[in-house]
Design brief:
Structural class: alpha+beta
Shape: globular
Largest sheet: 5 strands, mixed
Helix content: 10-25%
Mean pLDDT: 86
Low-confidence stretches: none
Order of helices and strands: HEEEHEE
Radius of gyration: 13 Å
Distance between the termini: 42 Å
């Protein structure tokens, strides 16, 4: 597998979270607000688990991924969800070959 783009990163995350399928519905490229969230994890039955909106970046920054979630209003897709929602930004730096992750709780206004 070539690990050189956002789609490859999304595939790796989907495999990594395969075990989450018992607790979460997992959506790739979910239409939300003004765009598409890369991955959304919605708890199946347990509202004590947080929903996750995940945006992936390639050679940018994890903080820019969080900014995109906010700017494009990806949280609108979960407006009716009553539980906690976490915003997750993940970036892969092709030079350092490191992943950086930022996680923030979405505070409803």
């Amino acid at each position: 597998m070539r690990y050189n783009d956002e789609n490859a990163l999304a595939s790796v995350l989907s495999i990594a979270y395969y075990s989450a399928k018992k607790d979460y519905y997992i959506f790739r490229e979910l239409p939300t607000g003004k765009g598409f969230a890369d991955l959304v994890f919605l708890p199946r039955n347990d509202l004590t688990l947080p929903a996750l909106i995940v945006e992936l970046k390639w050679d940018k920054s994890a903080q820019s991924a969080i900014k995109q979630i906010r700017d494009k209003q990806y949280t609108e897709a979960l407006a009716d969800y009553a539980g906690k929602v976490l915003l997750v930004g993940i970036n892969y730096d092709k030079v350092t070959k490191e992943h950086k992750c930022v996680i923030e709780q979405w505070n409803r206004n």
